[in-house]
Amino acid sequence: MARLLLGMSAGLVLLLLFVACNPNAVQPTAKPAVTAAPATAKPAATAVKPAAVALPTPTGQRPIVVGEPKPQQTVKSPVHVSGLAIAFEGTVRVEVANAQGTVLGRGFTTASVGGPEVGTFSFDVQFTAPAQSGPGTVRVYADNPRDGSRVGLVEVPVTLSK
Asked: pTM for this one?
């Protein structure tokens, strides 16, 4: 009888050690107390924000997607430019040009991650405002690491304003 009790005690000690040392072992958990809400309670009012418009995911054929500015939007300096890009080292370049193609301002930023991952970008680009409001273009692109050519050029038609 003593051997049986000694064997059971040893087995229980080993079981307790196994459970205590094994993070995957099932551990007992306390159940949370459940309290009922009063019958007269009303849900709190919450502000409803309009859903953000999701941009399409960039691809190898279309590595840059521009979210801002929107086509035909009137912009003034600095123009806010944002979107998604698959760009070498995450470098995204922007040019603001008038209707004749003259570059009025340019800048660059680094997306949140570099290619081949999809990164986000958002920054402001200063440009020389035209004397009168008129058509223009915001060009967004990345550089080809092999030859420096433009990759994924996106041209957004805008109205340039003072």
From this structure: 0.66
